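EI: anyone free to look at a 290-residue chain?
SC: sure, send it
EI:
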Amino acid sequence: MKLLPAQYIRAYVKRNKTDAVDAAALLEAARSSDIRPVRIKSVEQQALQGLHRIRSLWMGTRTSRINALRGFCREFGIAIPVGARTGIEAISRVLADPRSAVPDMIRGTARLLIEEIRLLEARIAQLERELAEIARHSPACTTLLSIPGIGLLTATAMVAATSGDVSHFKDARHFASWFGLTPREYSSGSSRYLGRISKKGDRYLRMLLTHGARSVLRAAAVAVNAWRQVCGIRQWALAVQQRTHHNKAACALANKLARICYATLRDHAPFAESERISKKLNRESFAMPA
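SC: here you go
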């Protein structure tokens, strides 16, 4: 006798001592043949993702300390310029000046915050050197580093998320939609409307791709202002920016970068010359210098 879905759920709950909601989800997954199974990450992938999460935590702590020091100085009428590097330098000069308006009561403790920020920067720089060493021994990371706008963090984070194998994605569009970079579609009949990007998937990788796209746009604008030749993906990005505006062009370019990443990982071929790869890997530190 074939069990009905409700009877199957009760039997599964009784046999495995699990929740009915979990049993219903498993039953629905078994009945839906079009659901693709999620690939299980290896121990190395999880460890690499852990390094990125630790770096994000340290960067957030560093930013909060800088903002706290900036607020303390503002309380005493001292304006600190915008920017992390210039802000830390300005705060250090204010604390070192005995004639500044900062009271002696808080001056010593504020110096301890400066030392904590320097310690965090040293740890971040050391972690990024470890990531660079991992990227040197990873063919997938080396391939991704050949793409404009893809740096050490984006390459290692993408390898941690995909292990460098994109064969389970149907095409490049599915790979870009996995990051939430494809527009939402509101269509009816013959009318097609594309809205904002879906913002589904890995938020961290989507942020890295978007920042990489912004850096490519900025570099292309600087090259145009210096009367240097701009070609390839930079010329396409500038054309999109002229038709729309900067933020839409950055999202479109991030989508394009994700598709290029898919193609390079699928074909195991670099996008550009090897000089770009060695230049990205030989940087001493990707954090703010001390």
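EI: Confidence is low (pLDDT under 50) at residues 286-290.
SC: 👍
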